[in-house]
Amino acid sequence: MSNPVQTVSPSGDKLKVALAVFAVIAGVVAFYFLSDRPTYVRAGALVAGLLVAIALAWTSTTGREFLNFSREAIRETKKVVWPTRKEAMQITGIVFAFVLVMALFLWGTDKVLEFLLYDVILGWKK
User: Fold this and answer.
1) For the segment 59-95, what is each residue's pLDDT rounded down to a tens digit?
2) CA separation, residue 28 to residues 22, 23, 44, 60, 79 (Å)
3) Do 24 and 73 sit in the same domain of this protein?
4) Is residue 73 domain-shared with residue 114, that is, in the same domain?
5) Are the C-beta atoms of 47 and 27 separated by less than 8 Å?
6) Nearest CA-CA partner of 56 in 26, 27, 30, 19
7) What's the distance, CA 27 to chain centroid?
8) Which domain holds residue 106?
9) Does the reported pTM lie above 0.85?
10) Residue 41: which of 30, 52, 51 has the closest Cα?
11) CA-CA distance, 117 to 119, in Å (whole number)?
């Protein structure tokens, strides 16, 4: 059995990730700061911040690992066998029926315990 070896990312990668986060925040702040400007200018500032962040993250090891993880996640979701509309409706109906039965059961249990406690044991009549 092989032991996985973890490598320490260079401090430059941490700086790149921090700058990427800062670029996203700067883009969002610029979007709201430019509220008196036309929408395309505001959207441009937001998109520019996001693009700078993506470029910075892309060059870091952490960013590339995240990109590989995202690709694998998308590949795995394509393997999922999704239910048809009919199957989804049937499953939803079963869930609603179960919830209704449980609600009635809990209501009935509550009423029986209420009757036993207040009327039989304590003798309090409502």
Assistant:
1) 888 878 888 898 999 999 999 998 999 999 999 999 9
2) 10, 9, 11, 22, 35
3) yes
4) no
5) yes
6) 19
7) 22
8) 83-126
9) no
10) 30
11) 6
